[in-house]
Hints:
Largest sheet: 7 strands, mixed
Number of strands: 17
Structural class: alpha/beta
Number of helices: 6
Order of helices and strands: EEEEEEHEHEEEEEHEHEEHHEE
Oligomer: single chain
Mean pLDDT: 94
Helix content: 10-25%
Amino acid sequence: MPVEITWWGHATCTVEDANIRVLTDPLFARRLAHLRRRRGALPPPGAWRADVALVSHLHADHLHLPSLARLAPGTRLLVPRGAPRAVPGLRRLRHLRLTEMAPGDVTGVGDLAVRAVSARHDGRRLPVGPHRSPALGYVVEGEARTYFAGDTGLFETMAKEVGPVDVALLPVGGWGPFLGEGHLDAGRAAEALALLGPRSAVPVHYGTYWPIGMDAVRPHEFHTPGEEFARLAAERAPGVRVHRLAHGESVRPGVSR
């Protein structure tokens, strides 16, 4: 079966490879604290189905306990090392099979190998306190190699750590009018694409959630990152095909080896 990518919004994707369903950073909420979902319907219950779910870091829009609670009993859950200590609510999700990961760790799920890689991002649950958990990306290898970057900035060893990949799921925006350190915007994501050199890319982490009451503040930061990423990728990584998906839309990039 060809590899298939579905984008549900924000950083939540389903990657189907080797008959295994991989779900990234599950977030199925209409509202999260001061954020509300402004574009795209909530993912349907079918989106909750996965063999393994990947959590890139502990921020609540990536490690969302109510969304994880919806996963079926027995689902594998890969989280950054130290996450259960930093987020005690994880320990109550006893229906999930939890594995802690650090950069370089590899976990097998059926015919897939899931490898954790570094990310340049603040991995703490809250913006205060000790750094107890690393922020991660993941490389999912089956019939294709798919890189899910989570949240990250550019870093010197990115291409070396990630290695050759066929598909890159890259964040190109955020949930507010300004991106802080440790994030990719459309331009930096295009630079990452040039470093990584995949065959295909899907922009994620934009155009879904926005702070309540801030609709008029730099609205282009909400609406345009995907389009801007596709334009800049054509200039800086012309050999990469960019698939700009609508919420709930799927693509088969045609990268089976």
